[in-house]
């Protein structure tokens, strides 16, 4: 037996017991006559003591050979500690070691296994198995596990069945971002890895499964943005005989259960906001509502005063930054520069200060007198001490720019506390979006999303105006999930494919099996998918999803620990009846 | 709202309530003046009634248009049923329908959605979504879900952490059966899909995760035997600071928990048998111990009696088939023909009857007198009425042949009751097996398996004799899991790779990251993986794993429903910088 207890377990009640422990040497403090070792495992740290009076010479010699990260087993007696450490569970005791076995030696690790390590990102990724020994990484993986268990238990209690859908599926011409997998048994043919189990979950509804879920790996072969992974995990769900309301209730229940566990409070009903309102009030379809700074549109107050920029703008809109009227010219200029960076792309902005002394002044005093300005501050509901920024231009662009400023100010002013949670449903998304590049409509959610019944007629007359029964779950300004009520009528589905520019043949080739399935009694159904990696990160007060993945890939899609992807043997290619066709 | 209740929910207590139900039309019985419809969903069946006296003409007309598998919604009143059906939960009531909405029509399905369907395997696979509507398929998927939940809850309670390991990993030259995945971002390079997360779980142990599990998809691109799938699911586990005993205890606890739930009884400690004993007693390393018929070796009783076949045989071994002495000559000849089939490959066999009248006779009376024969029956512990079969030849071959006969007789005599469960650990497997073809050793389990400490010296002198700390979990004659204590010392691991014929460079190229990890304090560790598909099938009293997979592939690795694998667009190949290189 390697241990009688873990290293997080012993306390004053165990004093005088003989115990066996195993673990890694975390630290060694050698005072000559006394030596202390912190022994670590997943569960905690236990202090070992060797002392010249009570320990044998052999034992002391043997302990002298230890180094950091050695794996050892000890036998000894639990004794009361002289200087107690109230910060750890085992802080009242230590083990007077009687026997020491070195189970495995260790080279000096390439970085320190401490909460604050000296290892850079790249080194830690290469030696990820050592990084995982560190509490901040280990704790994140354990947190992820616990969240997954809670999700599974909640959904199982709600009569959802976890069904495993296939990983080796069909590649579709639309699947530009599919990973493909050549089949040895079927040379020249390929499977694809799923970007989501969308069609399978719809088929499960047609199959009468009624309530399906799966925590499932999905795959996307695309240029990776800073925090995307080629393989990622979804909580994927679908329900039959439901309306949007039923889906929202179930998943706000699920999210509230997780949040309650973390934040220790009830979240009740989540607020809901239409896409149109979210864009108008926050310039963003995933607003962070932990703080205000709602957009205020002031066209009617600023136009016609000879200020050309505003006169020519489609929209003049601003935010009120509370309590910031005392910002210096330098601070304000820095913010103006910030919005002019190419990432934001604004031409500039106007400020209005409602000074603490009651005076209202602005960067456009030339065009607006104090009365004009006061009317504006009134519309914002600004008080003495507030600072207003106004931006102007094309409606969509200016909203996006102002949204960026709002988020930046939220960060700078400490209004985005990661331990505070503000969930929100955004609903009534547009069904379609026009793509300038290809000159056709794209499905905003996906081609299986149902239009709102009252908007179906718009498909004939003004498709871009049709709203979908689609919804996103937003948490702290991040989209953590999205879904929709699905089309379950084959004619409406055919019309959608048509609108999206599919020929009948294309639609048949790609989705024939789903269209076919619709003929045999498809029930009304709706669903949702949540990005599990992101959800877990945000619930844990973090936004870096990579930290919550045991073995993540880097921005080039590489696993630097195992060195993948890599070239394969010629015989393997030959067996697959493939040849490399490398461009220069 | 589509329903107030499911179709499995209403009973006498709901009489007089107004309800809304949705579901599929299972059956229609139209008696002219009365019409009954069985409405089905995942939860059950509810009988709907329309009647000429109480229903409006429009309603009756609308009901008249219904067909099988139409999706409908009804509103109505729960009333007491005339002829009750005690077999179903809702058998005491029916719904007098007041309003009927056809949610979706259905073509006549290609096979009947009944427990006993008229659809053949191929048709049902093509329309798997309709097959899933049938109770026998649906119930299996629900059973699978419940087992997965139980496994997860059990292991979580035992402090195991579910960690997701990557699906896109590194292909190794050894991985002849790897599926590979070309990377668009890294042209000419490939990921591989994991055949198991073996190295990752070992790295997690090195990373201090202590107890890891995962219910995870694994992949193998190989010719598919009757009941293999290119993607399959494993319960994958690993533990640190443990010995074999700890692993066996945890997983017999897990299996007993599942079995208790199904069979309603405690299973206590599972029996254990060495590989050597299993081969000697059952000719098989996965014996079905639901029935006896243990092998009895009789060399010393049969040799030297001028029966050349036995005199020349390395081993003469038999089984006692209780109560079958009255088998006719024809029945026995048929069994002899059975063992002579190429699948078994025996040259023949000898029978000895211990007749009910006490006389012992045999097919070799010419060589053995009754006293000789009685000695044999005594060694078998046979009683009057028993029938003994003896086979002879090369030790390994004859055991395999006799094992096939034993299993066949077990089946024919009804000794393999699928609702009876006999778990068993087979332990002490050989570490290596000699491969005649390549003229070198192969790892019997895998190259990371530790030899038994007392056999390590044999690696130098007689490696084939070394036993491993490896174990298989057997249930009803099926291997449902296997694992081993792992090597955690880099020198021993290097020696193993050497024994297995790897050059130092090969070992480095393929397992360098693991060998490297061993340098930084690898703890002792051991693990196990269970085939989840098979486990679930056997627990459910079945052996066909395909039935427990929602969307299985056929023997050619094809998903006939979605038609995968399939060819991909030239542009996709081009982007991957690949070319087809098809052989004639």
Automatic annotation (TrEMBL), chains A, B:
Q: Which UniProt keywords apply?
A: Aminoacyl-tRNA synthetase, ATP-binding, Cytoplasm, Ligase, Nucleotide-binding, Protein biosynthesis
Ligand binding (L-aspartate): 174, 220, 445, 486
In short, the EC number is: 6.1.1.12
Q: Which GO terms describe its molecular function?
A: aspartate-tRNA ligase activity; ATP binding; nucleic acid binding
Q: In which compartments does the protein localize?
A: Cytoplasm
GO-annotated biological processes: aspartyl-tRNA aminoacylation
* Family matches, as PROSITE patterns: AA_TRNA_LIGASE_II
Q: Does the keyword Heme feature in the UniProt annotation?
A: no
InterPro entries on file: Aa-tRNA-synt_II, aa-tRNA-synth_II, aa-tRNA-synth_II/BPL/LPL, Asp-tRNA-ligase_1, Asp-tRNA-ligase_1_N, Asp/Asn-tRNA-synth_IIb, AspRS_core, GAD-like_sf
- Span list, region Aspartate: 198-201
Question: Do you know which SUPFAM superfamilies this protein is assigned to?
Answer: Class II aaRS and biotin synthetases, GAD domain-like, Nucleic acid-binding proteins
Q: Which reaction does it catalyse?
A: tRNA(Asp) + L-aspartate + ATP = L-aspartyl-tRNA(Asp) + AMP + diphosphate
First-listed, main subcellular location of the protein, grouped into a coarse class? cytoplasm
Q: Where does ATP bind?
A: 220-222, 229, 479, 531-534
Q: Which residues form the Aminoacyl-transfer RNA synthetases class-II family profile domain?
A: 144-552
State whether keyword Repeat applies. Answer: no
Q: Name one GO cellular component term.
A: cytoplasm
Q: What does this protein do?
A: Catalyzes the attachment of L-aspartate to tRNA(Asp) in a two-step reaction: L-aspartate is first activated by ATP to form Asp-AMP and then transferred to the acceptor end of tRNA(Asp).
Q: Member of which family?
A: Belongs to the class-II aminoacyl-tRNA synthetase family. Type 1 subfamily.
Q: How does it assemble?
A: Homodimer.
Q: How is this protein named in the record? A: Aspartate--tRNA ligase
């Amino acid at each position: 037996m390697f241990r009688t207890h873990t290293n997080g377990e012993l306390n004053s009640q165990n004093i005088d017991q003989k115990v066996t422990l195993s673990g890694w040497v975390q630290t060694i403090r050698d005072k000559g006559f006394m030596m202390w070792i912190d022994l670590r495992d997943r569960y905690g740290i236990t202090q070992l003591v060797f002392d010249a009076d009570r320990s044998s010479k052999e034992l002391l010699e043997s302990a002298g050979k230890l180094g950091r990260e050695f794996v050892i087993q000890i036998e000894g007696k639990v004794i009361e500690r002289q200087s107690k450490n109230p910060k750890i569970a085992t802080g009242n005791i230590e083990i007077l070691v009687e026997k020491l076995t070195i189970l495995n030696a260790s080279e000096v690790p390439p970085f320190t296994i401490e909460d604050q390590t000296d290892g850079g990102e790249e080194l830690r990724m290469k030696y990820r198995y050592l990084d995982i020994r560190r509490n901040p990484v280990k704790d994140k993986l354990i947190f992820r596990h616990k969240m997954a268990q809670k999700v599974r238990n909640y959904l199982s209690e709600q009569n959802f069945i976890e069904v495993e859908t296939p990983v080796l599926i069909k590649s579709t011409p639309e699947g530009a971002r599919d990973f493909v997998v050549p089949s040895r048994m079927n040379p020249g043919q390929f499977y694809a890895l799923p970007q989501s189990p969308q069609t399978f979950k719809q088929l499960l509804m047609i199959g009468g499964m009624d309530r399906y879920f799966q925590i499932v790996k999905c795959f996307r072969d695309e240029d990776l943005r800073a925090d995307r992974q080629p393989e990622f995990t979804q909580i994927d769900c679908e329900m039959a005989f439901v309306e949007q309301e039923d889906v929202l209730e179930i998943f706000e229940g699920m999210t509230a259960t997780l949040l309650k566990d973390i934040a220790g409070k009830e979240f009740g009903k989540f607020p809901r906001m239409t896409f149109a309102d979210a864009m108008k009030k926050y310039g963003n379809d995933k607003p962070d509502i932990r703080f205000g700074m709602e957009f205020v549109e002031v066209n009617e107050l600023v136009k016609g005063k000879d200020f050309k920029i505003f006169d020519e703008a489609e929209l003049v809109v601003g935010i009120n930054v509370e309590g910031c009227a005392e910002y210096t010219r330098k601070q304000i200029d820095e913010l103006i520069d910030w919005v002019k960076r190419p990432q934001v792309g604004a031409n500039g902005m106007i400020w209005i200060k409602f000074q603490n002394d009651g005076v209202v002044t602005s960067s456009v005093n030339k065009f607006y007198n104090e009365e004009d300005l006061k009317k504006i501050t009134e519309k914002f509901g600004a008080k003495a001490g507030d600072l207003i920024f106004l931006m102007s231009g094309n409606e969509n662009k200016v909203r996006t720019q102002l949204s960026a400023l709002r988020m930046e100010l939220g960060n700078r002013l400490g209004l985005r506390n990661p331990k505070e949670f503000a969930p929100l449903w955004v609903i009534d998304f547009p069904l379609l979006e026009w793509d300038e590049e290809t000159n056709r409509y794209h499905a905003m959610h996906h081609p299986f999303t149902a239009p709102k019944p009252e908007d179906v007629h718009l498909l004939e007359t003004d498709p871009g105006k049709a709203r979908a029964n689609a919804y996103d779950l937003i948490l702290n300004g991040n989209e953590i999930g999205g879904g929709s009520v699905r089309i379950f009528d084959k004619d409406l589905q055919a019309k959608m494919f048509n609108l999206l520019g599919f020929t009948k043949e294309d639609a048949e080739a790609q989705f024939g099996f789903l269209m076919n399935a619709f003929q045999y009694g498809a029930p009304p159904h709706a669903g949702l998918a949540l990005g599990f990696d992101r959800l877990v990160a945000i619930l844990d007060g973090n936004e870096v999803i990579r930290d919550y993945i045991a073995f993540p890939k880097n921005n080039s899609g590489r696993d630097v620990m195992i060195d993948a992807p890599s070239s394969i043997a010629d015989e393997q290619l030959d067996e697959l009846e493939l040849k490399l066709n490398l461009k220069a």
